[in-house]
Every structure is written in C-alpha cells, then in structure tokens.
Amino acid sequence: xxxxxxxAASAPPPLFRLFVGRSEFALLVxxxxxxxxxxxxxxxxxxxxxxxxxxxxxxxAMTAGIGVAIVFISGEVDVSVGSLVAAVAIxxxxxxxxxxxxxxGVAGALALxxxxxxxxxxxxxxxxxxxxxxxxxxxxxxxxxxYLYTGQTAIPDDAxxxxxxxxxxxxxLDVLPIPAAIAFxxxxxFAYVLRHRPFGRQVYAVGGSPEVARLAGYDVRRIKFxxxxxxxxxxxxxxxxxxxRLGSAVHVAGLGFEFQVVAAVVLGGVSLSGGVGSxxxxxxxxxxxxxxxxxxxxxxxxxxxxxxITGFIxxxxxxxxxxxxxxx
Amino acid sequence: xxxxxxETAKEAAxxxxxxxxxxxxxPGVIALDGVDLALAPGKVHALxxxxxxxxxxxxxILAGVYGKDTGTIRVGGRETEFRSPRDALRQGIKVVFQEIxxxxxxxxxxxxxxxEYPRIAGGSIDWKRIRAEAAALFQRIGxxxxxxxxxxxxxxxxxxxxxxxxxxxxxxxxxxMDEPTSSLTPKEVELLxxxxxxxxxxxxxxxxxxxxxxxxxEIADEVTVLRDGRHISTKPIGAHTHDSLIHDMIGxxxxxxxxxxRRHSPGKAVLTVENLSTDAKLKGVSFEARAGEVLGFxxxxxxxRTELAKAIVGYDPIRSGTIRIxxxxxxxxxxxxxxxxxxxxxxxxxxxEGLMLELPVLQNMSLASLSAFAKAGFVDEGRERSAVxxxxxxxxxxxxxxxxxxxxxxxxxxxxxxxxxxxxxGLKVIVVDEPTRGIDVGAKSEIFALIDQLAGExxxxxxxxxxxxxxxxxxxxxxxxAEGRITAVMPRDAATQEIILNAAIA
Lengths: 328, 506
Description:
The structure holds two protein chains of two kinds.
Chain A (H helix, E strand, L loop, with lengths): L14 H6 L2 H19 L6 H26 L7 H7 L1 H11 L2 H25 L4 H20 L4 E2 L5 H8 L1 E2 L3 E2 H19 L1 H11 L1 H6 L4 H27 L1 E2 L7 H11 L11 H20 L4 H25 L1
Antiparallel strand pairs in A: 1-4, 2-3
Helix pairs in contact in A: 2-14, 3-9, 3-10, 3-12, 3-13, 3-14, 4-7, 4-12, 5-6, 6-7, 6-12, 8-12, 9-10, 10-12, 13-14, 13-15
Chain B lengths: L4 H7 L5 E10 L2 E11 L4 E5 L6 H9 L6 E6 L2 E3 L4 H6 L2 E4 L11 H5 L14 H15 L14 H14 L4 E5 L7 H16 L3 E5 L3 H7 L2 E6 L2 E7 L5 H8 L19 E9 L7 E6 L3 E6 L5 H8 L7 E6 L2 E2 L5 H7 L1 E4 L3 H5 L6 H6 L3 H4 E2 L2 E2 L1 H14 L16 H15 L3 E5 L7 H16 L3 E6 L2 H7 L2 E6 L2 E7 L5 H9 L1
Parallel strand pairs in B: 3-8, 3-9, 6-7, 7-8, 13-20, 13-21, 16-19, 19-20
Antiparallel strand pairs in B: 1-2, 1-4, 4-5, 9-10, 11-12, 11-14, 14-15, 17-18, 21-22
Helix pairs in contact in B: 5-6, 15-16, 16-17
C-alpha cells in the first residue's frame, strides 16, 4: 500500500451523542416529562388502570399509524384511513350477523381494506395522481358510502360473539388491553420489516430518492403501491378493533381519525417528504398525544383547549426538527 | 471479487469492453454518429470533447440509462446490450455520475449494497456482513470511509469513494467516472488518483471523462476525443501534446455564422463588476459591460457561467466584491433591487425558473411590470394587454392569442416572451444564460436576431454560452471562464477557437 489516504475520522461517536442525536430519544424524554407532570398534577393519572386505559385508546391510532407512517416514508400521503375504519365495520358486522363467524367477518373487512388500498395505490403510484388528492377523495367517498349504506345510523352487532367483544375490550392477565397487545406486536413486526427486510429498506430508498432507487433497479411504483395496501390493511385492523369497542358498525366512527394519526406520525419525526422516520418515533408520537389528551382531561381542561394545545405542540415539534435540519 | 493476476493477464488480450459504430439520435439531433471505444483492462482511458461532443450520451449508453440506436457493444468479447443501470452493473459496468446516485439518509455500508442486500437464511438483511464487507472494500481501494457514517454527511469526494466501493462490491470490471474532479479540492484529486491507480492494479478498466488537460495527462493511458457526436481520435497519451489534444477537440469549421447587423461602437460601461466572489464558485471576477454590446461568456461545464449570471442579478448571495449598475451599487444584494436598477436574467432553466407553464402568455410577459400597469392597487388590464400585444407584434411571437397557456408555445416563442418580460420593464443590462438551449435551429436565428436587435437599441447584453458558434457569431467581446475565474477577455475579432478553448481549459 503506497499510502492509505484517510479523510474520515472514523472514531465512534460518544455514547451521549449516539442517543441525543436521535429524534426518538427526544420524544421519549418528552413523553416521560408529560407523564411525570400529570402524575404530580393529578392523583388518578399514574394508576395502572388509567395507564392501561390510555394504552388501549392509543392502540387504534398506533395500528393505523404504522401503515400511514410507511406510506409517508415512501414519499406519499394517506389520509383515507379515517373513513376506512368506519367502512370496514360494515362488512364485518353484516357478515357476522349473517354467519355468526368472526373469521368470516374479519375476512370481509380485510377484503374491503384490500380493495381500498389497491385503488389508492393504483391511482397514486401507477396513474400518478397526487396521493393527498387521491386519498382525500377516497376519504370522502367512503364516508359518503357509509352514510348511504347505513342510512345515517349504526348497524348493531346482533351476533354478539364473545370473541368479537374480547378483541376490542378484553385484557391479557386482566391488565393489558388486547388492542394494545395487537398494536404492539404489529409495531414490532413492521419495525423489523422496515429495518431488516429488503422491502423495508426499499421503502426508505424510494422515499429518500426515487431517482436513485430507480437507478438501483427498484420498481418504484410497485413499492409505493404495496405501501398503500399495507396502510389500508392496518387501518382495517384498527377499524375492526374500533367496531368491537363500539359494539356495532357506527356511521360516524373515526371522524377526524385521519388527522389524529397524521398528527402523531409527523410528531413522531416521520418526514412528509419521504425517506425519513421510524415506527418507534410514530408510536411515541401517538403516546404523547394520547397521554396529553388524557392528562389534560383529568385536569378538567375543556376539549377545546386540548385541541389548541395539541396544535401548538405539533407545530413546535415539527418546526424544531426543521430548524435543526436547516442548521446542518 | 479477487483479482487473480493470471486471470488479469489472460483478459488483457481481449478488450474489457468494445463499442463499435455506436449511434444515437434524439428528436432533431444526432448525438452520436458511429462512435468507437475500446477499453483495455487495467488502463485509464480518457474521454474528451467540448460541450455537446457526445461524451455524456456515450456514458449514459454505457450505464444503461439510454439505449443505443445502432452499433454493437461487446463485454469480454461477447456481444451484449445494457437494458438498465442495474443490468449494466450486473455485466460489470459502473458509472459514477457527477450527480452522485446514493441515498443520503442511508449509511455508507447500506448504500454499497443497495442493488443486492446480502441476506441471512430466511431472507432478512445480513447487516453484519454488509458492515464487514464495506470495510473490506474500502481497504481494497485504500481509502478510509466510515461504513457507519450517514452518506449525506460526507463530502462529495468521499461519496465518490462509496460509489467506487459499490462498483467493487458488484465485481465491476469497468468503472466510468464523469467529471469526477469538478467539485474536489486539489488534495482530494490526488487521493482520487491514488484510488484510480489501485483500481487499474486490480485489472479494472477506468474511463475518465474530463476536460481538464493536466489531469488527463497525469492519469490517462489512452485518450479518445469526440466532437459533434463523432469519433475523432484514439491515441496513447504519449502521442499527444497539449496542442494536439486541443486541436482534436475543436478542429470544427464554424460555418454560417450569424450575421450581425450592428455597426456602431458600444457606449459607456453600464455594468461594472469588481472582484466578485461567492461561496459557490466565483473567485475574484471583474469585468464591465457596455451599453450596446453583446459580451459573450464562454466556459466548459462547471466553469461558473451560470453562477456568475445568478450572482450579478442578485439571485445568489455573494461573499465579496461589488456590482454597479450605471454607477449605483447593487446593495442590498437581491433580485428586487437588481430589477429596480435595471438588470434582469433570462435563465437557462426556462421551465422551472422562467415560465409559469400553465398561465397564459399575457401573465407570463407582464409579470415583472405589473406595478407599472397598476391603478390604485389594481392592474389596469387594458394597458397590460396593449403593452403585451405590442411586444408580441414586435418580436413576432407565434401564439393564437394572449390567453394561450405558455406551455403550448414552442421553445423559441417562450424565450421571446421571457425576453419581452424584461424589456417591458425597461432594462439597461440583460443577462441571457444559454439563450438557445432546447430551441430548434430555425428559431435559434430568430433569437439571435432579437438579441442583436436589443444590443442595437443600446442594451448591454451579457450572454452565457457553451456553444462556440453562438459565442463567435453574436459577441462583440468574449470573456472566457474556467473554474470560477475569468481567464481571458478579447474582442471578437481577435478570438479564435484555439485561443478560447485554451483559456477555457487552463
């Protein structure tokens, strides 16, 4: 070796930097601060019951948030989930009422989710229509369809299956809500996929730089299409859990849910421009918003103020990220 | 992956790659016309030529970005074709473009294996192997890059090394580098050359695309020169002198130069630039432009023409130096002040920086002059229309009407509308950057006539161009740029292609 040129000082960063540099760490700190604050401010906040209740409530946004985050990472947007959670309850409850079978009902719900995901994905990835427009369109179409089909009322669950009741309301060992456990398992599975499966890395590559991804031989459109399918299927799961909690297919279920999810996703550090973010960040974003809303509620702060505070927090958090990014 | 010396010796008999009679045409242009290129294993082959000679098209065919229209390609003696960049890489060819093709959010190691992640049983990614192999690859090329670093945080010089490691990871036998030193410091260039020599020692054929003569003489074994899409010469570097290489690169007859009609001497200096430097590119640029003249700036790719254009109209920030328009300094340095003083830019990137594609001719033309048509805060549409109409007539803009969306006009007519946008405003100095890019031959002469007419009316026209015929045909004076500096200024009558290219390559 005539000479070994070296421009890179490749000493590992100190442990401190390793954590502080990561946005997930900042989110975790924020979450702990929020929990600590409300524990001091309210006597009933830091109880097992309340904590697990919040986890149960958060699990719907977390489940759908996984899919929405994946679509965001691929460089697209999906806001159709708010109506989809209501729409999938219709085949679910209708089929259960006819067949007394949870499995068939779930299959029906998933089939509808698959169709919606395929339509979103086809229009956005293959037809090249802006995905915000496409999914905003399906958001309206699905909600309108639900109103038309139900005649503006709820379809009650007449089958009254115990298994259906349990998936939304049961608790493992009488502590952990089943929806929270489902969300947690899905989170781990998809975090693993994003980190360790070639498909997951391709999602990041496609969102980070479609041109580079294309040069590397990736089928950019197919990858984005798949992300929309995943998102719709996960929203379907959230819709099934919601229907179980509500005990029927409710026509107004999930109104505004899409914004709750998008807020948590961006708060969790997932970039709207694609290629950046993690599911753990998204999960922390969901938990922060959930604990915040629960805690503020306990302090008897009106919902109006909860909304105002949530809005400020989202802008501040994302703005902070943006300032940090531009500094570099 | 290993370079067996015996294997390398055997391969030396067969060219690593042979291109014969490669032809490629785009609508209205013949980009390549029967070009040959043969690469020997373990040699550095320089590919040279002026702007538009066909170098980029040729390497894009090599990279699998473009398909060829005619000719044959052989890799290791076997006839083949490259259907995509991935396909080319699979066949052992890696092109390192100027625009580096890496995902900036990914680690260095991950980028190296983007095409094909090593897997563990079950199909998940083998991160341990990726990190280990990345480190091993950097050891082989003798350049230390941290495989765990985020790629976007690295300087271009190191990103290039990541691309080279990526080539080795795919056992590439041919590595093409497109203007690799254009954004490197001299120190980094030296390091790059060390790495290139290591590649050739591994039996890899390197194609070095550049217009920097010194570098080519230092690193290349052979040189192929292209001109106007044709193969001009392939010689060992030892058979060339500085002059012979330049001669091969130009040697073009410039016929039917544009006939200038202006026959008066230019007036006083209306634009004075002193010692202008920017963070981006420019280093101590000084010149003046006079009323009624066309001052042509020539430079090869990356010389800094566009950067100069954007700096003097207040678009890009400057670090030091002064710009005076008719004696008044351009302070604050922004486009609003610049337009107020009477200097405007006709951008090289018409589609994104010039036009509002969906809007009609009317709005596109009157954009910079709306305040002149305003009455009590409302645009007086009658006056706006008549002003726009008069320019449409005067410049003979071919449009069905003022309401026509500008995207439906031809490139030449779009350019006329943009010129009119500035003239309506009443400028003293207009900077035109590559005024005939993407405009067909017929419309070109109309644009030339228009620019000539503007100078005739007393405007100072500063024209940035990479086209020799345009430069020689239209300019009254010629300034040549290289690496952010002005290397020569001469009156048109004293200029020859040799003098200009010599100054551009310096």
